[in-house]
Fold this sequence. Notes:
5-stranded mixed sheet, 24% strand
Amino acid sequence: xxxxxxxxxxxxxxxxxxxxxxxxxxxxxxxxxxxxxxxxxxxxxxxxxxxxxxxxxxxxxxxxxxxxxxxxxxxxxxxxxxxxxxxxxxxxxxxxxxxxxxxxxxxxxxxxxxxxxxxxxxxxxxxxxxxxxxxxxxxxxxxxxxxxxxxxxxxxxxxxxxxxxxxxxxxxxxxxxxxxxxxxxxxxxxxxxxxxxxxxxxxxxxxxxxxxxxxxxxxxxxxxxxxxxxxxxxxxxxxxxxxxxxxxxxxxxxxxxxxxxxxxxxxxxxxxxxxxxxxxxxxxxxxxxxxxxxxxxxxxx
Length: 301
């Protein structure tokens, strides 16, 4: 039988069919699973891990930024064998990591971002995700806790009271968080300069809605320090929403998924979700599950 002759048009069509460049839906989430590791604060039993695993299955995200998880072995207790795990090497059980679903078809380049460790605090994770000829940069963070709304400029921090242990800890927290601004800005600036689409996500331990409503100057608010012009102009859905986690126990988000304009163009409208636990809040449950509900978005990649 004579083989069919491929015309130029049909040849081009066949090549396009074999190697398509198109976008697929990618679900990206962030979840702080408190003290998921070998620390004495983790008193979870087998039933607790099963409960967490059920919520992880319900979340069903392709990429999950993890905070307060010791390593991949502990993450596997919740997420099973469907994910590859990438973790920082910080010598502390509250590590930052990322779970990437094996079936997502993503090429992953992962490395630590140690510059966030300004005074014995957690490292970040820098990821490059690529699929279908498109690329997205991620920086996963867990910033210093304890300075949720206070101004971060040096003068304001210096004037904070320090007559009690609680005040001293708060002042130290604000001082540390203020020092993390520079390495965060440096990462953002680098990606913007290279015209990258990027997302910074995780536990910022900062109420961006309060930064914005307080109309802080650039050196006072973490949001104002990071938000800039051009490819550094930032957007997050959490800035204008209230958290329903544990019945709205804390209404202001401190977990965020932050986009630059190039990444925002990939965001699927109205896809932001918070997975709310069905159980009624108790202090015990916030420890056996976690005090943070996972948040997620969908991106075309």
